[in-house]
Amino acid sequence: MLHVYGCPGTRSNRVVWALEEVGAIYEYHLVNLLAGEGRKPDYLAINPGGKVPTLVDGELILSESAAICTYIGDCFPASGLTPPPGSVERALYNQWCFFILSELEQPLWTMTKHRFALSEKHRVPAIFATAHWEWSIAAQVLATGLGERAFLVGECFTAADLLAAQTLAWARAFEIPFGHATLETYADRLLERPARAQAVEREQGIAPLVE
Ligand SMILES: N[C@@H](CCC(=O)N[C@@H](CS)C(=O)NCC(=O)O)C(=O)O
After folding, report:
1. Whose CA is nearest to atom 11 of ligand 1?
2. Residue 140 has pLDDT above 50, yes or no
3. What is the mean pLDDT of residues 186-210?
4. Is 11 in the pocket of ligand 1 (CB under 6 A)?
5. pLDDT at site 204
6. Whose CA is nearest to atom 13 of ligand 1?
């Protein structure tokens, strides 16, 4: 049995979405970040950073949302969520996942931290202009890489698209324009996938949104 530790309205929705895409059976454990549950010793024992998501599969404990989504895809190869290891598609898939986590989401994470995630004494409002500028550059790279295609890699939906779509949804929640009509269409289409709706329902059914 797979166990996912998450909190509604956070990056754990990537993992729950991936689990729903592959049809996995899993147990969801709420880590109420607002109530400080991420800092409890029993949770720190499986995730020393006190963050969500975490996936536990037997002896394996995984953090980092992209690594978890990739593991889920690899465990369910028929789903096509991850291209086969060693393939050209897998190399491109890895590239997009690393880009999304290190370039695309970072300006959003900077904005999130300096809006509310950090304690007030650590917030630097002057950072927003730079974060917006960095976002526009990363969004341009994503739009160029996607072109007129439906998916980032090959002809089918992969976890790279899932991570990109969730990051675009995050930008929308912050009312940050994408600046590219193709990204709007891409996000609309991916965010309408039934597995995403099931994931949102599964997480929100467990606890109210943190925001
Ligand atoms: N790179 C990590 C980031 C995880 C992360 O920062 N999670 C946030 C919620 S979206 C969190 O748990 N924050 C609580 C904290 O920093 O104390 C991933 O993608 O899994």
Report:
1. 51
2. yes
3. 86
4. yes
5. 87
6. 51
Whole-model pTM? Answer: 0.95
**Could you give the C-alpha distances from 211 to 10, 31, 49, 112, 208, in angstroms and in order?**
10, 14, 21, 12, 9
- Residue 61's DSSP bridge partners are 56
**Ligand 1 proximity of 9 Cβ (cutoff 6 Å):** no
d(CA 107, CA 105): 6
Residue whose Cα lies nearest atom 14 of ligand 1: it is: 51
Atom of ligand 1 nearest to the CA of 68: 20
Q: Is 50 in the pocket of ligand 1 (CB under 6 A)?
A: yes
Ligand 1 atom nearest to CA at 65: 20
In the chain, count H helices and then E strands: 9, 4
Amino acid 96: pLDDT: 98
Segment 4-37, tens digit of pLDDT: 999 999 999 999 999 999 999 999 999 999 999 9
In the chain the domains, ranked by start, together with CATH numbers, are 2-80+195-204 (3.40.30.10), 88-193 (1.20.1050.10)
Q: What is the mean pLDDT of residues 140-166?
A: 98
CA separation for the pair 114, 120 (Å, rounded)? 8
